[in-house]
Structure formats: structure tokens, C-alpha cells
Amino acid sequence: MLTEQQQQIITNIYDYVCIKLANDTTGHDIAHIERVVKLAKHIQSFEPQTNLFIVIISAYLHDVIDDKVIENYQSARNDLLAFMAQQPITQDEQLAIFSIIDNMSFSKNLTKQRALSREGQIVQDADRLDAMGAIGIGRAFYYGGNKHDSMYDPNIKPRILKSKADYRQSNTIINHFYEKLLLLKDKINTPEGKRLAEQRHHFLIEFVKRFEIEWEGE
């Protein structure tokens, strides 16, 4: 159970995130954050040995210093550090939170799996689950449209991503399914996350199959 003080800290962080992501048009808005928090809390309920407070805060903050979302990484990080210093959070808690949000993203784990606490694995699973299924499809097209990517070009083949630079390089939206979304199922950490991922992964496969058939006018 969370204490009254912890609940207030979470409220403060929620308000902070709402302000920071208020103008997001990439699919990393507060609605995404709230879904990730809900999924993380659900998965954590199957992992009672973990710290719910750390899970919730990390889930709320996981995108506020992500360089695919914000314009100036160092400025955003400094702002978050200053904000967190104002909260009654211990140094160990802050280290645990930053260790998660600094290391959980897909792009940072392309070449080597970064070590995450169990709390970090829970938040990572929740974030990856929101990139799958029906919501994941919607977010993929929303993000791709924001970046002016074309929907599909059968002459442009999916890549094997080897670096963050590869990941950030523009490509078709359907290729994003092959390069990332369809790979997420096998990268989930927790048993409950794996269970949820199976359903969402199947939906992705069926969508891509149908999309490619309809693209040909069939």
C-alpha cells in the first residue's frame, strides 16, 4: 500500500508530466502515460515483492526525457532533476527511478540488453505492451504521420536495426511493424506481461497480413 505522502508525490508527478507532454503529437501523450501506468500496476500486482511506488513514478516519467519526444534532452533532464529534488523522495529512490527511465527504451537496448531492476522490467513491459495490439497500431500510424513517413512501399524492405541512428532514420510505417512491433513479444520480461503480449502480438500479425493484401487491391 502507498502512504499518503507517496500518493501526494505521485499526484505532483502526474501534474508535471501533464504539463511536459501537453503538446505531444507523437503518441507519447498523457493518455499513453496513463495506459502504461495502469498496465504497470496490473503487472506489479503479480510481482508483490517489487516496489509499487518506484513502478508508478517510473511509468509516469518514462517519456519526459526521451529524445524522440522532447527537443532538448539535456534541458529536459535538468528540469526533471530540479523537479525531483523538490519532492520528498530519497536519494536511493531517485537513483532507482532514473536507472529505469534512462535504460528501458527500445532504442537503448538494440545492441545490448541493459540491466533493469524488476521494477524497471515491469515498466518496460507495460510500455512495450502499449506499442502492441490495436492501440499499438493506432500509435504507429499517428507517430509515422507526425514524422511524415509513408504508410507502405513494397520496394522498401524492412531493416535489421543495428543502432539508435538506424532506429531514428525514417522508414515506412509498415516496416516499423517488422523492425520493432512484431519483435516485442519475445522481449517481454514478466510472466503476466508475456500473457498479455500474446494476445496483442496476434492482433498485429493479422493486421499486417490484411493490410498487405488490401494494398494490392485484393
Automatic annotation (TrEMBL):
UniProt keywords, alphabetically: Hydrolase
UniProt KW Hydrolase keyword: yes
Recorded superkingdom: Bacteria
Alphabetized CDD domains for the sequence: HDc
One GO MF term attached to the UniProt entry: hydrolase activity
UniProt entry tagged with the keyword Electron transport: no
Boundaries of every HD/PDEase domain copy: 25-141
Gene3D superfamilies the record matches: 1.20.58.1910, HD-domain/PDEase-like
Pfam families for this protein: HD
PANTHER family according to UniProt: HD_PDEASE DOMAIN-CONTAINING PROTEIN, SUPERFAMILY HYDROLASE, PUTATIVE (AFU_ORTHOLOGUE AFUA_1G03035)-RELATED
Protein name, UniProt field: Putative HD superfamily hydrolase
Organism: Frischella perrara
